[in-house]
Amino acid sequence: MTELTITRPGVLPQQRTLPGPTEDSLADLLRQAAWRYRADHDWHTEIIGNQLMLSLGRDLLGVCMSAGRAGEINHQLRLYRLTYPVLPLPGPRPRWVFLASDSGRAHRTGTPYFVALLDLNQRIPLPPSGTSSGPLRWIVPPERCADGIPGLDPILAVIRTVAAHL
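^ thats the sequence. predicted structure below, dont judge the formating
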C-alpha cells in the first residue's frame, strides 16, 4: 500500500510504502469476521492459516462457474430481482461462487456442464481471507439479500435458461 504526501504546487508528490497488516492484525480480522458471519448468518466457519473457511452443506450450497458466465448469470438474476451473495474464488482461472440456501428439495438434475455444485463437506474462503492478490472481497455481499439468501431452484432455473441459449 502506498501513501501520497501533498506538496506545494508544481512539485510532484512523494510516495512511501506503508506497512501491511501484521499476522496478528489479520488473525484479529479473521476472528472478528468469523464471529460476524456466525451472528448475522449462522454460518459455520474455521480459520485455517490466513483463510476464513465457510463449511458448506448445512442448508447452504455453492454454485460455482467461470467468472465470465457468472457475470452473465448475475445480470440475469438482477432482471428477476434476485440477489445472491457472490464470491470470487482465488486461483489461476477466475471463478465465482453464488451462495444459495438449500431446503433439500431442490431439483439438481439437468445442471449444465459449466456449473459445479459445492455442498456437504466442502469449504470456500470468505472475506477477509488473504490471497496472493490481497484480501478476498465480496462481489455481492450477503447483506444485500434483504429477504435472506434465495434457494437453489431459482438460480438453477436462470442458469438452465441461459445455457439453453448458448
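Residues 20-164 form one domain.
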